[in-house]
Amino acid sequence: MSLQEVKIISKSRHEAPAYQTEGSSGMDVRALLEAPLELAPMQRALVPTGLFLEMDPSLECQVRPRSGLALKKGLTVLNTPGTIDADYRGEIGVILVNLSDQTAVVTDGERIAQLVFCKVEKVNLVHSTTLGASERGEGGFGSTGLK
Question: Does residue 3 lie in a domain region?
Fold first, then answer.
């Protein structure tokens, strides 16, 4: 399998994102902090990574939570999945939120999120006055049942 190349600049003192196993979909990304970051319950913060990307316009990079961090500390990515557009050249920041009932601490070098690269399909929106019928129709928000 050939891999699409994505340029990365790292201003971090930590190892670059990498797939942890052959079957991994995401690459772990680490916090770049001068001091430990305390997050009180329901508090959120933008956590720097020191990473910058350049990718083909056919890609997006999604910032997703790490399941272990969510389970062990109650921390998750607030705008999950966060999208890094192909034309963005700024530092990757991760918006973490503490959903637990205790203060959580994020330390320098801690794996805080994962990056998943996905193909992007561009579309052309066509204005219309009607939409075709479907079995579901306008039903949403649980209209197909709970089980």
Answer: no
In 3D, which of 45, 19, 43, 17 has the Cα closest to residue 30?
17
- Dump the DSSP string for 52-99: EEE--TTEEEEEE--HHHHHHH-EEETTSSEEE-TT--S--EEEEEE-
In-domain check, residue 131: no
**Per-residue pLDDT reduced to its tens digit, 113-124:** 999 999 999 999
**Total domains in the fold of the chain:** 1
| Domain harbouring 81, CATH code | 2.70.40.10
In tens, the pLDDT along 10-54 reads 999 999 999 999 999 999 999 999 999 999 999 999 999 999 999
Amino acid at 2: S
Quote the pLDDT of residue 1.
64
